[in-house]
Amino acid sequence: MTFASLSALVFALGAALQAVNAVTLPQKRATCAGGQVTANAACCVLFPILEDLQQNLFDGGECGEEVHESLRLTFHDAIGFSPTKGGGGADGSVLTFSDPEVNFPANLGIDEIVEAQKPFLARHNISAGDLVQFAGALGVSNCPGAPRIPFFLGRPPAKAASPIGLVPEPFDTVTDILDRMGDAGFAAVEVVWLLSSHTIAAADHVDESIPGTPFDSTPSIFDSQFFIETQLRGTSFPGSGGNHGEVESPLAGEIRLQSDHLLARDSRTSCEWQSMVDNMPKIQNRFAATMLKMSLLGQNQADLIDCSDVIPTPPALVGKAHLPAGKVQSDVEQACATTPFPAIAADPGPVTAVPPVPPS
């Protein structure tokens, strides 16, 4: 690694940590009409929305399908930002201008969560950009092991739809993905940190015949299993599978995106990917940092109100990092050239298929 690239890596890490550490929860001092206490009276508007979302979108506080999709929507809305191609970033254009945005090829499947969130937008005093990011941060708080995602209030209405072609797709090359994310201001390590989201994710449309197929064996727990299981040996499906950005997972009932498979093995990202294995403090810290950065794309943080203390504290992590039952260390496809894969024990079993994420 050259001195210049090392300096860039250190700068990216420092910037991300400064971003998340800058969001300190101030002392609560405003009492809302419902009795809740928060740091800023302007944040009181969020508590009725929180209760409505938890009961009527997230099934009473579950880390399920609607949480997964709401988290996905935060990215698909925010990444519609480019200094050269335009786009308003995290402005809610995916709700306000859902036609045409839900019809972009990269946005396949987001129409369902877009339509599910629109009634909440209609009945509450909140902008579309704030609703998308608030629902994502709130939903993640339902998942054991997750960090508390910072949230800022006050995004103005979206002015136009995002340009087409700004959302990376699972069959894009690593270079294309890193270039697109770099254009939006993310370093390669930050792409890895942001992909921690796939620990609580599933695919409905990568293969239409198997909806709700998770990306790891614990899709309702925010843990490091995604980073472990993507490094198990897997091969591309023959024929149409690869055309949909799909790679065969060695675990029955689990799906792996081609982009995740390649990022876990590319020299630009493989060591950072491996560093997330069994390192929950790092996963939580880096994910919160990149989520904050993403949620502010196209926005001026100084114009927004810190309402992070409205987001509930997530439940503690359940379980510990492990190889799936029936797997051994030699099943890991070592990709990082400088550091061996961490020694972790295998789940004692039995070997079972990963169940699909049930629809809401």
UniProtKB/TrEMBL annotation:
Q: What does the Swiss-Prot or TrEMBL cofactor note state?
A: Binds 1 heme b (iron(II)-protoporphyrin IX) group per subunit.
Q: Which domain of life is it from?
A: Eukaryota
What GO terms in the biological process aspect are recorded for it? cellular response to oxidative stress; hydrogen peroxide catabolic process; response to reactive oxygen species
UniProt-annotated site: Transition state stabilizer, residues = R72
Its family?
A: Belongs to the peroxidase family. Ligninase subfamily.
Report the SS bond pairs: C32-C44, C43-C307, C63-C143, C271-C336
Per the UniProt entry, the Enzyme Commission number(s) are 1.11.1.-
Q: Which residues bind heme b?
A: H198
Where does it live in the cell?
Secreted
The record's section on InterPro entries has: Ccp1-like (IPR044831), Haem_peroxidase (IPR002016), Haem_peroxidase_sf (IPR010255), Ligninase (IPR001621), Ligninase_C (IPR024589), Peroxidases_AS (IPR019794), Peroxidases_heam-ligand_BS (IPR019793)
Question: What positions does UniProt annotate as the active site of this protein?
Answer: H76 (proton acceptor)
Q: Write out the residues that bind Ca(2+) 1.
A: D77, G89, D91, S93
Query: What GO molecular functions are on record for this protein?
Result: heme binding; metal ion binding; peroxidase activity
List the GO terms this entry assigns under cellular component, sorted alphabetically.
extracellular region
Signal peptide residues on this chain, from the entry's feature table: 1-22
Q: Where does the Plant heme peroxidase family profile domain lie?
A: 110-340
Protein name per the record: Peroxidase
Keyword list (alphabetical) reads: Calcium, Disulfide bond, Glycoprotein, Heme, Hydrogen peroxide, Iron, Metal-binding, Oxidoreductase, Peroxidase, Secreted, Signal
Kindly list the cofactors needed.
heme b; Ca(2+)
Q: Binding of Ca(2+) 2: at which residues?
A: T199, D216, T218, D223
